[in-house]
Amino acid sequence: MSARLRLGLAGLGSMGRNHLRIISTHPETTLTAVADPDPSALEAAVAQTQAQGFADPLEMIEKAQLDGVVVAAPTTYHLALAMAAIEKGVPVLVEKPIAASVEDALAIVAAAARRHVPVQVGHVERFNPAVVEMGRLLRGGALPAIYTIQSRRAGPFPARIRDVGVTIDLGTHDVDMLSWIVGERPTRVYAETAQRIHTDHEDLLFGLMRFPSGATAFLDVDWLTPAKRRNLVVVGDKGMFELDYLTQNLTFTSSNLERPELIDGYATTFSGNVAKIDVNIVEPLKAQLDEFVRVLRGGGRPQVDAEDGLWAVRLADALLMAASEHRPVDLPVLPERLPRE
C-alpha cells in the first residue's frame, strides 16, 4: 500500500463533520488540514484529528500540502474554494450542488478542463448500494423501457440552510439521479414551488421531467415533512423497482400481464410477484470517498464529475424558472445516453 493520501477539509457543518469522520477513519487517507471560521468547531476538529487548523479555507488550500480537497462549506462558497484548488492543481471533491448558479458551475467546469484537474461532485446517492444494485439490474435489462419515475425527498426544515432553497439544495440530488436512471438528460421540465417556512427561498418543489425516450419523472421535494423520507419508484415494461435510500431496501415487482384482456367489459387485474433484492449495506459517503481515492491514485474521470454537477444545477435552475414563469421550459436535446455506472 502506498502512502496515505493527504486530504484537506473545508467546512465543518453537518456534512463537513460527516466527511471528517469518514476521512479520519478511511484506511487510505489522512486528514492533514481542516478549515472553518467557527473557532469552537475548528478547535474540536483539530483536537479530534490532530490536523492542521485554519480559520480561512482559502489559506488552507494555499498553504497546506494536500493531495486533495473536500469542500463542504456553504454552497455560495463552492466557486471560490473549488477554483482555488483547481488553480493550484489540487483535485477537488465538492459537496453538491457544485455551485449556487449555472454561471458558477460553468466556471468550475471550464477551469477543471483547462487545468486538467479532476473535480468530483458529492451526489452521494449515486453511491448508495441499493442504487448501485438497481443500476446493475437496469443495465442487465430488468426494465428495457422505463415509463415513469417517482422520487420523494422530504424532511423537516434544516437549520443549516440559509443561502439556497430546497430545489438547489435537495432537488439537485434527484434531477441527477433521475437522469442517471433513464440514461438521458430531460428535454422539458415543469414545476410548482411554495415558500412556507424559509424566509428567503422556496421550501417545496413539485417537478415534472420529460425525457427523449418518453419516460416521465415526478419530483416531490420539501423541507416541510416532519419525518425524513427518501423514496424512489421506477416503473417500466417488465415491472417496478421500489427503493428506500435510508434503509437501502430494494424490491422488484414483476409485471404479469403485458396487455390486459377485457372480461365481460372489465379489465382484469393481476398483482405481480414481489422480490426483495439483496443489497450489501455500506455507508454511501464512504463509498463516495473510495471513488475519490481511486481518482487521486489512478486518475481518470470521477463517476460523478463537474459536468454532472453542472447539469444538476442547470436542471434545478430550469425547474425554478418553470415555476416562476408558470410554463414548461424546454431544454436542448442531448441524444447521447448516460452510463448507469
Give a description of the structure:
The chain has helices at residues 14-25, 39-49, 57-63, 78-87, 102-115, 129-139, 166-182, 284-298, 306-325; strands spanning 5-10, 29-35, 52-54, 68-71, 92-95, 119-122, 146-154, 188-194, 204-210, 216-222, 229-236, 239-244, 249-254, 262-263, 266-267, 274-277, 329-330. With 341 residues, the protein is an alpha/beta fold. It folds into 2 domains: 5-123 and 286-305, Rossmann fold; 126-283 and 312-330, Dihydrodipicolinate Reductase, domain 2. It has a 9-stranded mixed β-sheet with strand order 16-13-12-11-7-10-9-8-17. Helix 1 (14-25) links the parallel strand 1 and strand 2. Helix 7 (166-182) packs across helix 9. The longest helix is centred in the C-terminal third of the chain and has 20 residues, at 306-325. It is globular.
